Structure formats: C-alpha cells, structure tokens
C-alpha cells in the first residue's frame, strides 16, 4: 500500500483508536528488556490498560484500552522505554534472539545497540515510516526470514550480506561497516521514496538504492529461509547457563505473569514469533521457573498447538471483525481439535468444524492483520462462518 496519507502507525505518543479503546505500541529494539522494564510494562497494563501485554510480530509490545496517555508516556519514559519522543515509531529493529548466548554465530548485540543509538541521533531518520523494518541476523537465518526493508545477515567470516526489500542485495560489508551501511540505506530510502510505506513498494527499489549508495553488488546471492519458529523449551547456553524459550498463547501476556517474569531478575527477550526467552539462568532456577510459569499459561513444550496458531485482535478490539477470533481459537485448541487438517477452499463452516493442525492464522475479516510470513493456512471469519484455505504448495 502506498503512503497517500500521514503515517498512522501507533506508538506511545500517538495512539490508535481501536474499537475497545486507545492502543499504544511500544518499540523494543532487538526485543531486549530488563527486569525493571518488564515490571514497568506490567504496571502500565494493570494501572493504565486492560491488564494484558500484547506481543507483536516485530518483537514489540502493545497495550490496549489505555486510559491516560500522558501517564503512560511518563511511566515508560522513566523505565527507558521511550528514549526519544521524535523517533519512537521508527525503532523497528528485530535481531536474532539467541545471538551471543547460543551457537557459533557472531554476537550481534553491539550492532543492535549501535544501530538504535544512531537512529535516535539522526533528526532526518525520524521521518521514516513506522512500518520500515530493520533486521540484524547473526547468520542462523531466523530473522532474515521476515523479509526486512533493510537488514544484514551474518556470513560467519566478519562479513554480512546486505538485505534490501526482503532479499539479498549482493552487497557484502564488514562488521565495522554494517551500522553505517544500514543507516545509509535508510537515508537512501527517504530520498527515493515518493510516499511509499516500505522499500518493497518502490519499483526496483533495492537496485536503485544500491546504485544511489555507490555500492557494487557481487554475483553471490543468499537463499533466505522461508519460515523460522520460536526457540522453545530448555536451551543450554554456551557459558553453561540456560535460556528458557516460552510461547505466549496468542501473544497475550497477562500483567500478573509479567510481574513473575520481572521477579526472576534476568534479562527477557521478546521474539517476532510472539514468544519470549528468559536468559542467563542456572539449572536449578530454570527448573523452578518452569514449575511456576507453565501452570500460568506460558508454553515450554515445542509440540504445543499454541505455537502453530496466530490470530488477529478480533472482537471486541476490532470493529471490522466478524467474531471474537481469540475465543474461537481457544475453544478449538482446548477441545483438542488438532488431529487432522481440514480445508474448505471457499465454503463457510462454523468454528466448531475447524481443527488446528499445522500453521494457521485466524482472521476476523479479509484484511488478515497480523498474518506471519511464509506458507500458512488462513482461517478467515465472514458473515456465514469461517473459510479455511491451505497454502499453495
């Protein structure tokens, strides 16, 4: 979609008027939260919102039914979650969640910090559309699959591939050059654009951008992975500690559960798969965390059907939705309707006829808001029931 009107992506200072009340979106670059920041989000959800913290497909969070926008901004500012009132909506940076803790890949956490700091320091880049996505992939291929506007992908030899418009541009840069190159690409996007939301919407955008930047693409091109999934369960770190990957049902984290997470006093990572990771745990504390938080609804089982299903907000949050999507999904999962796929390819069926096998995205209308990338079965509500359409092989 071309940007024919002002950028309306929500933030903390510009709320979205959803059907159930004002909605705030808090950017969390790289998905990294301190325990104090998790506690601040829990307080905001309890005191100023509907009592839940929504995880988004960009590793950010949303708060619904915000009752006092000024108080929310002050609370998040004091927790370090609103470091700039001019750039808050452009800090869309997704990074490999396990980088620097698990695996032989380079630690890209310093690059994420540097990129965010440099974004905030550039007055001009405050003009980026709120939908422009940066990714920093350490080479394991998890976040490059999200097809960023601008990103880097580690090659394992102090080189990174520059990703533009969701694919490998052919340009290679060193770790030292990486942040500067990402920023130059962002400036170039602003120069090339004529109102587009995304680089993908500019005709020949990647080629024109590399030419404008004076870069010479090579002939090598990476085949980026189609789909990555959340890291779930017991994940041994290279330093002998443990990360616990936890799924969050339909991406909605109760504030009470967030308070327990904050009390663990370990860094929390949000992922773009609406899950989270509790890091740097000893084995004993990790076992205790699972015993406490699994009964509260966090998912530590990699085979859980909750990890295969996403959904839009549905009613009452969205006026365009035909039904309460999340209630229907919950009923399907809790009834154990997970044994075999069913597709109707256009015929409407009641919610009770749908099973939840395979990757699915449930939508309350034909806009399919929140749909993940990659092949996925679409379960779409309409006036007469649901249509179930499987991905084309």
Structure characteristics:
8 helices, 22% strand
Mind explaining what this structure looks like?
The protein has a five-stranded antiparallel β-sheet. A five-stranded antiparallel β-sheet has the order 3-14-15-12-11. A five-stranded mixed β-sheet has the order 6-7-8-9-10. It starts with 15 loop residues before the first strand and ends with a strand. The protein has eight helices and 19 strands. It has helices spanning 35-48, 69-78, 109-121, 175-192, 205-212, 255-263, 283-293, 325-334, and strands spanning 16-18, 21-26, 32-33, 52-55, 61-63, 93-95, 134-137, 150-154, 159-164, 167-174, 233-236, 242-247, 252-254, 268-270, 275-281, 309-311, 360-363, 377-382, 385-389. A hairpin with a 4-residue loop joins strand 8 and strand 9 (159-164). 45% of the residues are buried. It is an alpha+beta fold and 393 residues long.
Layout of secondary structure:
Blueprint: E1 16-18, E2 21-26, E3 32-33, H1 35-48, E4 52-55, E5 61-63, H2 69-78, E6 93-95, H3 109-121, E7 134-137, E8 150-154, E9 159-164, E10 167-174, H4 175-192, H5 205-212, E11 233-236, E12 242-247, E13 252-254, H6 255-263, E14 268-270, E15 275-281, H7 283-293, E16 309-311, H8 325-334, E17 360-363, E18 377-382, E19 385-389
Parallel strand pairs: 6-7, 7-8, 16-17, 17-18
Antiparallel strand pairs: 1-2, 2-5, 3-14, 4-5, 4-13, 8-9, 9-10, 11-12, 12-15, 14-15, 18-19
Helix pairs in contact: 1-2, 1-6, 3-4, 4-5
